[in-house]
Design a protein that fits this description.
Layout (H helix, E strand, L loop, with lengths): L1 H21 L2 H5 L2 E8 L7 H19 L5 E3 L5 E5 L3 H67 L5 H60 L8 E4 L2 E4 L5 H15 L27 H11 L3 H17 L1
Parallel strand pairs: 1-2, 1-3, 3-5
Antiparallel strand pairs: 4-5
The structure holds zinc ion.
GO molecular function, one term: metalloendopeptidase activity
Protein name: Peptidase M10 metallopeptidase domain-containing protein
Keywords: Coiled coil, Hydrolase, Metal-binding, Protease, Zinc
């Protein structure tokens, strides 16, 4: 019985020592050493770029906490960061391609909408000046006709008046031709506006259909499966770009400090990606998570020992 008791204490001590250093307390005082373990080149980045992303993920925590030694890269560290390429990343890449194609279409729509807006504005401004000139022309023509009519009734105009009237007639004719040209241009413009409007409606219809397909195919409210932290291993499964990778790494580094998920969607430690700021930054909830993971009282840590042993036994 005594032997069993002693063994239990020793085992407890070993477990607890490991647990204190690894999961909670010491990790907050001593640097967490990590290294890059498995690295799959199919992610399309070099290991150097991965290390750079890790350094940025470290900085997310270290800068806010004023601790530049919270995480340290060490070739032979126990904590490995693995880049595991599988179906998840293949799907993420497919999603990204579909998103890019949607964005290209959206840009084309925007260009067309802007062109339509400009042409409509041009049409309205030309229409106003056309109307003003047309009314002025009609008035001048009426005045001219009335004057000619009057001189005809008087048996003809004197030569100097006749000369003025002839000059006026030529001016009116020139104005009529110009007004006709302007009217034709307005009609052409109107046809072009209609064509672009139809094309725009078609494109927007197609775009909306593609957005619907995209949402059906790719948008799911999934948990944070882009990466995980298990038995002193950080595994990265998917990321779309550098910023995304930094976020995933910052999140998993948080778990390596024993920080749990928090409720604020813009927190690094929120269970879903998407609502975090750019560049990534800790929220008050993340900081509180760090504090509670690192500053649990001795009683809290002791109470956690049986729970940890129980978890170890059932796993
Ligand atoms: Zn998580």
């Amino acid at each position: 019985m005594r032997i069993i008791y002693v063994s239990f204490i020793v085992i407890l001590f070993l477990f607890a020592g490991n647990w204190w250093a690894g999961a909670f307390g010491l990790a907050c005082k001593l640097p967490v050493y990590y290294t890059v373990g498995q690295f799959d080149e199919r992610f399309g980045i070099s290991e150097t770029e991965a290390r750079l992303a890790l350094a940025e993920a470290e900085a997310v925590w270290e800068e806010s906490l004023g601790r530049d030694d919270l995480f340290t890269y060490k070739e032979d560290a126990k904590l490995q960061v693995n880049f595991i390429y599988d179906e998840r990343q293949r799907q993420a890449e497919e999603t990204e391609r579909a998103r890019d194609s949607l964005e290209t279409r959206e840009e084309a729509n925007t260009v067309l909408v802007e062109l339509h807006r400009q042409l409509v504005a041009e049409y309205h401004s030309n229409e106003v000046s056309y109307e003003e000139r047309r009314v002025a022309y009609e008035n001048s023509l009426d005045a001219y006709n009335a004057e000619v009519e009057r001189y005809n009734q008087e048996g003809g105009a004197p030569p100097d008046v006749y000369k003025d009237l002839e000059k006026k007639r030529v001016q009116l004719e020139t104005e009529r031709i110009e007004l006709n040209d302007l009217g034709d241009k307005l009609n052409d413009l109107s046809e072009r506006i209609n064509e672009i409007g139809e094309k725009g409606n078609e494109l927007i219809g197609e775009y909306n259909e593609r957005v619907r397909q995209f949402n059906d195919t790719f948008v799911h409210d999934e948990e944070y499966t882009q990466g995980d932290y298990r038995s002193r291993q950080i595994n990265v499964y998917t990321f779309t770009d550098h910023r995304d990778l930094v976020l995933v790494l910052a999140h998993e580094l948080g778990h390596s400090l024993a920080i749990s998920h928090v409720e604020n969607p813009s927190s690094i430690m929120y269970y879903l990606m998407g609502g975090q700021t750019s560049p990534p930054a800790l929220t008050d909830e993340d900081l509180a998570g760090f504090t509670s993971a690192c500053e649990q009282g001795v009683v809290g840590r002791l109470l956690a020992i049986p729970r940890m042993l129980y978890n170890t036994l059932i796993n």
